[in-house]
Amino acid sequence: MFDYKLLQALSAVARQGSFDQAASELGLTQSAVSQRVKLLEQRLGQPLLVRAHPIRPTQAGLALMRHQQQVEMMESALASSLSQDEDSHYQRIRLAVNADSLATWLPSVLAGLHRKHRVLSELTVEDEVVTLERLRRGEVAGCISAHAQAVQGCRSTLLGNLDYILVCSPEFASTHFNEGVDAQSLRLAPTLKYSSNDDLLAQFLQTFYPTDNSLPPHHLIPSAQGFVDAVLNHMGYAALPRLQIQFALNNGELQQLGTHSLAVPLYWHSWRLQSPVMELVGKSLLAQSRISLSR
């Protein structure tokens, strides 16, 4: 039988990448967290963490993290069902989501879950192509990903498509696209990337304006709202969700470059063994996606 205080310490260290941050999360000393992890490793007779920078779990550590995540969900569901004062109990969910969903259609889902079901959301924001790794590592109970293939022990459900278009400010267009929008002008003009993992623009250009694999000069701005603000302030053009910038298009602050639209599919991934609250999360996501996302 596992000591779940030890598992909790292991998961916190692996999720945070350091003993100090894990100690802060758990309200313990760094020494106490370290002792709990060492004790768990001694009982199992194998290392559970790779002491690198950042710290990461071994394969055995990953398996234990996934187990601990599922136990935590089940305990939360049980506590909710046994609570005599339902209004005083909150349930926490850990999710990995992409920034563009968080900037557009996802907040209404989270707000509804909090308002109607007293759900507290703990989000990790990543590019939609890497969120699935958080679920695979056992750091979260569910994720929104661009990948359809479910990882072992999980299920995958199509939510819909988030449609992206190329946009820039009229001032930027008059400077960089005065002679039209084509493959050459798009590869010479400055643009934006969310992170080093963000290949959305490369995918857009290769799909609709193929030449070579070279990327335009770009800013690196890891913020969904910062992306929009940078485009509004004439720093570059970008591929943005139509859902996010429709108002700016309507009032003339932004203009579309070309006529193409890239549909990026989004999938909801979660463990097959689910707590009632995670079943509720999945149903809420599907309901809102039918309203907000394209098919």
TrEMBL record:
Domain HTH lysR-type, residue spans: 2-58
SUPFAM superfamilies given in the database record: Periplasmic binding protein-like II, Winged helix' DNA-binding domain
InterPro entries: ArgP, LTTR, LysR_HTH_N, LysR_subst-bd, WH-like_DNA-bd_sf, WH_DNA-bd_sf
Entry keyword annotation includes Disulfide bond: no
A Pfam family annotated for this UniProt entry: HTH_1
Alphabetical UniProt keywords: DNA-binding, Transcription, Transcription regulation
One GO molecular-function entry: DNA binding
Positions in coiled-coil regions: none
Family note: Belongs to the LysR transcriptional regulatory family.
PANTHER family: HTH-TYPE TRANSCRIPTIONAL REGULATOR ARGP, TRANSCRIPTIONAL REGULATOR
Name of the protein in question: LysR family transcriptional regulator ArgP
